[in-house]
Amino acid sequence: MTIREATEKLEEQTLSPYAQLSSKTKGRIVQEEKCDIRTEFQRDRDRIIHSKSFRRLKHKTQVFITPEGDHYRTRLTHTLEVAQIARTIARSLRLNEDLTEAIALGHDLGHTPFGHAGEDVLNEICPHGFKHYEQSLRVVEKLEGGKGINLTYEVKDGIVNHTGDHVAETLEGQIIKFADRIAYINHDIDDAIRGGVIKKDSIPSKCIKILGDTHGKRIDTMIKDIIYQSKDKPYVMMSPEVKEATDELRNFMFEHVYIGSSAKSEEEKAKNIIVELYQFFKKHPEKLPEQNKALLDEEDIDRIVCDYIAGMTDNYAIKKFCEIFVPKSWSL
After folding, report:
1. Which DSSP string corresponds to 192-213?
2. Is the pLDDT assigned to residue 332 strictly greater than 70?
3. Among 58, 141, 216, 269, fewest CB within 10 Å belongs to which?
4. Dihedral of CA 84/90/95/99: which sign?
5. How many angstroms separate the CA atoms of 232 and 237, rounded?
6. CB within 8 Å of 16: residues ≥ 6 apart
7. SS3 for 68?
8. Which DSSP state fits 74?
9. Which residues pair with 74 in a beta bridge?
């Protein structure tokens, strides 16, 4: 028996009957020889961590564009916080922790530079529309490395269904929707207080009473509520009371931080960078990188330019904008 087979056997013996077993995966589009050491979901997690798309998340905006300070979240630190929260829930419910972690680490691979401002403007100007969760799937299926990274069905299902009204097929995938919301609501509050956008005593008193008066207490309350409400059940859920308080906290953040606050003061500049880059590369496809140009025979120009810009980091987008549109000083 290989180490992988022993791990799969252990899953069968110890995980919840509602867990997705590694040995029961629906598999990959391109079949591969199995690893002697790692399960299929462990391999997916490793492929995501070693991808260029994952590394670029460290220079992509979460909420604050180019903040002055080392402690504000980026898209990468958000992803790691989601993975930590999701693993805690999965382990407590005896679900497949490796599958949960893989989905968490891959859920935002398709996010744009400049956070949701980048997503919104690409959705406006690209005829195909743009949703970051769909782009995350496109990254792992096609764009990463020029051919995708051939992930298992369950990981891809969790990635594309981690937000909105979408529901993942596995409970591990369903956890990510909750973990994502828990992470961004709480760390965005932390960052907004640090940045002086809101004050701690402006958080709705009802939310504080139910969820807690500190960052740690709120996360602890939300996680424990999900665990106790979902234990030994074929679904993942929050209690009505905690869900209502969480939703109210999210609405508070939209009203005071996500829309129209000083945290968003640079967004119009960021959107303009993306618009100008999009128009330039659509007009001059010969300026695209070779990997993107190689797709011109099978994809239309809008799709290819959108892929290229969505993959940029904040810094790279600013750099390309300056190279193309900002004149350089001239000297003899």
Report:
1. HHHTTSS-GGGS-HHHHHHH-S
2. no
3. 216
4. negative
5. 12
6. 93, 94, 95, 232
7. coil
8. B
9. 61
Enumerate the β-bridge partners of residue 61: 74
Contact 172, 19 (CB under 8 A): yes
Query: Which has the closest alpha carbon to 258: 185, 174, 169, 166?
Result: 185
> Over the chain, what is the mean pLDDT?
96
- To which residue do tokens 């994809």 refer? 299
Which tokens is 223 given? 């996680």
Q: By the 8 A CB rule, do 105 and 51 touch?
A: no
Instruction: Please report the pLDDT score of residue 260 as a whole number.
Output: 82
Q: What is the pLDDT of residues 26-78, one digit of tens each?
A: 999 999 999 999 999 999 999 999 999 999 999 999 998 877 788 899 999 99
The structural domains of the chain, ordered by start, are: 3-111+136-262 (1.10.3210.10)
Neighbours of 246 (CB within 10 A): 23
Please check the confidence at residue 144 and state whether its pLDDT lies above 80.
yes
Q: What is the pTM of this model?
A: 0.96
Structure tokens at 316: 């790279």
* Listed residue (269, 257, 261, 327) closest to 66, CA to CA: 269
Residues in the chain: 332
How far are the Cα atoms of 47, 132, 138 from residue 141, in angstroms, in the given order?
A: 12, 14, 5
The type of residue at 278 is Y
Question: Bigger pLDDT: 90 or 298?
Answer: 90
